[in-house]
Amino acid sequence: MAEKRFRALVTGGAGFIGAHLVEALVADRNQVTVIDNLSSGKLSNLDNVKDRIDFIRGDIRERELLEKAARGCRYIFHLAAVVSVTATVTDPVGSARVNELGTLEVLEAARKCEIRRVILSSSSAVYGDDPRLPKQEQMPPRPKSPYAVQKLVNEHYAALYNDLYGVETVCLRYFNVYGPRQDPSSPYSGVISIFMKQAADKKPPVIYGDGGQTRDFVFVTDVVRANLLAAGAPSAAGDILNIGTGKSISITELWNLVAGIAGVGLKPEYQPPRSGDIRHSVADIGRAARSVGYRPEVDLASGLAETYKWCLQQQ
Ligand code: UD1
């Protein structure tokens, strides 16, 4: 990043992606405040940096706490959210309170505390089932879950704060993020975290459908770099950027790669497709490259190997 050494607030900094971002900010010798209510994040994710950050256990909707955390920061990286799509389907109102009103509180705190820029975590879920590939930012959104609607609403609020109040914002639409610390414990966890656990336990994985569906899997450290680049590129204010790799792989091929890394010869168990499953997803990352100089650096084989190493350490 161009301007080194600043204070940043990371909401959701104890989560899977947030904790990697906090580590990178600390490694660059920036001062970091984390606010996290630990609803899905874990303090242990911050074990490597806990003595070098200010940690606030609290909810982004606690206005005074949030403002206190934001004061004096140059950037806010906003990652706090109900991140489970299924949880938002079960509880559209409760999740909107966090994902929509919580984000509005973050933007409002940024306005009051004169934060230079807010980098918001959005999702490729906003594209929904649009069959056109690769996904480009200007395609009309087709949200198919409360989660996707909530992320889209946040993008609109971010644009409004950028244009109306002069709080610079950049929204990053993550594709399928994977890496160490991703929790495999729910059937709706990221497929890579589930496949890793199955391989480590020497149990066959379940593949929903014919396994020919494809995804663009992006390693967590590339997502972290995208956040840092989005903070540092002056002309990116107001942008919405896809953050993936521009390449996709089928779920069957993915399992073959994981099985190869783990040295297991297990055959997947094929089950009926999941309802609402999207067939193909791949990002066009041209705009992110032009706007902030983003290019993914970790190829799938290396990212999977690193994730598997971590997975074995958890056994
Ligand atoms: C993502 C969300 C998901 C949401 C969906 C729609 C993540 C991790 N998941 O799903 O919660 O409903 O967008 O917006 O962001 N699969 C298997 N076996 C498994 C697990 C998954 O075959 O054990 C398949 C799935 O059916 C899917 C693919 O793997 O086809 C990827 O699944 P997943 O990691 O959940 O990501 P998305 O489908 O992109």
Explain how this protein is built.
This protein has 315 residues and is α/β, with parallel strands linked by helices. It has a domain at 7-177 and 220-245 and 283-297: 3-Layer(aba) Sandwich (Rossmann fold). Helices cover 39% and strands 17% of the residues. The chain is built from ten helices and 13 strands. A seven-stranded parallel beta sheet has the order 3-2-1-4-5-6-11, with helices on both faces. It is globular and about 55 Å long. Uridine-diphosphate-N-acetylglucosamine (UD1) binds next to helix 6 and strand 8.
Secondary structure layout:
Blueprint: E1 7-11, H1 16-27, E2 31-36, E3 54-57, H2 63-70, E4 75-78, H3 85-90, H4 92-112, E5 117-123, H5 146-164, E6 168-174, E7 176-178, H6 191-200, E8 206-208, E9 214-215, E10 217-219, H7 220-232, E11 240-243, E12 249-250, H8 251-262, E13 269-271, H9 286-292, H10 300-313
Parallel strand pairs: 1-2, 1-4, 2-3, 4-5, 5-6, 6-11, 7-10, 8-13
Antiparallel strand pairs: 9-12
